[in-house]
Amino acid sequence: MASKIPATVVTGFLGAGKTSLIRNLIERANGRRYAFVINEFGDLGVDRELIKGCGIEGCEDEDVVELTNGCICCTVADDFLPTIQGLLDRPQRPDHIIIETSGLALPKPLLKAFGWPEVRTRSTVDGVIAVIDAAAVAAGRFATDVAAVQAQRESDDMLDHESPLEELFEEQLSCADMVILNKTDLVDAATLARVKAQVQAELRPGVKIVTSANGQVDPTILLGLESAAEDDLASRPSHHDDGHEHDHDDFASIVVDLGEVTDPDLIEARIMEMARSHDILRIKGFLALPGKPMRMVVQAVGDRVQRYFDRPWAAGEPQRSQLVVIGETGFDAAAVTAGLRGTLRADAAE
After folding, report:
1. pLDDT band at 239; cut points 50, 70, 90
2. Residue 12 region, left (φ>0) first, then alpha (ψ -120 to 50), else beta?
3. Contact, 88 vs 123, CB < 8 A?
4. Residue 52 has pLDDT above 50, yes or no
5. CA distances from 272 to 13, 165, 299, 300 (A)
6. What is the pLDDT of residue 140?
7. In sequence order, which residues have a C-beta less than 8 Å from that of residue 306 and are 6 or more positions away?
8. N or C, which end of the chain is more exposed by having fewer CB within 10 Å?
9. What is the pTM of this model?
10. What are phi and psi of 98, to 5 degrees?
11. Do 38 and 67 meet the contact criterion of CB atoms below 8 Å apart?
C-alpha cells in the first residue's frame, strides 16, 4: 500500500503573507512535486494568479487548484473533499499538498475532513502553519484590550464581547502546529518581543514560533512536522466545537475595475485614504500600466501598501487593472469604488 501523502494547511489572516510563504516553497522545491489548493475570499483570484503565473520551474498550472465557491471551511463536503480526492487519484501523485486557506477560514473543519474514510487512508495532515503579520498584531488589529472589555462586560450584559477578527485570530492560533511571525522587518526588536509573547500566550504547549520577513522560511522547517493533526483534534480548541457554523456575514468584498493606470503612486495614495476612512481590511489585485509589458501587483493591509511587477502579461491575457476590496460588512462599497476610481479622474485631469 502506498504511503500517505502529507498535506500542510497554511492559515492566517488577510494579508499576513501566506502567498509569499508558498512562493518561497516553490522556489526552493528542489525537485519535489507540490500540489496547491488555494481558497480566496472575494471574486478576483489574486493568490492563485500569483502562484500559477510565477514562472518558477516545476510549478505547473495544473498543480494549482482554486476553490471559489465560498470560504473553504464552509464548503468542505461540496468543494474541498472532491478536490483532495482528485489530487490523490492522479496517476502522478504529488509529493506534498499545500492548502492555502482563505484569510477568513477556520482551519479545524479542514482537519476533520482528513478523517473522512475516502481521504484518511491516503493522506494525512503533516501540519497546520499559521502565518501572522507582526506589524498588524503590534498595532492591536486582532486583540482587544482585556481590561477595557472586562469593564464593558460588567456594565453591559448585552455586549458582544468578541470581535470577528479577534475570534478568527484565536481560532487560527489554537489550531497551529507552527507559527510564522511574518513581516518582522516592519517592527523593532522591543515590539517584536512583545508580539511574540502575546502570540505565544495563545498557543498550545510545544508550538514553536519562527520569525520571517517576506515569507522566507526554509522548507525543511515548515514541512515534515508529521503532526497527523486529523488524529489530534481534541487538543485544538475552537469557539465552534458546539456545532455552530462560522458566520462569514461579518465580512464582504467587491471588485473594482480601474482600466489603465498611468500613475500608480496616485492609486497607492487613494488606497491608503480608503483604508483609513472605511472599514477596509485588505486590498489586492493587479494594475495595467500603458507601455509596460509587465503587470503590477498591489497588496495592501490596512494603510500599508506594497506594489511590484511580478511577470509579463501573457499573450492574449486581458490587461486589466482590478482590485478586490475586503472589509467588514456594511462598509460603503459605493464610496470606496468612487474613491479608487477618483484616482483615475484626478490623474486624467493632470
Report:
1. low
2. left
3. yes
4. yes
5. 19, 20, 11, 8
6. 78
7. 298, 299, 300
8. N
9. 0.66
10. -110, 125
11. yes
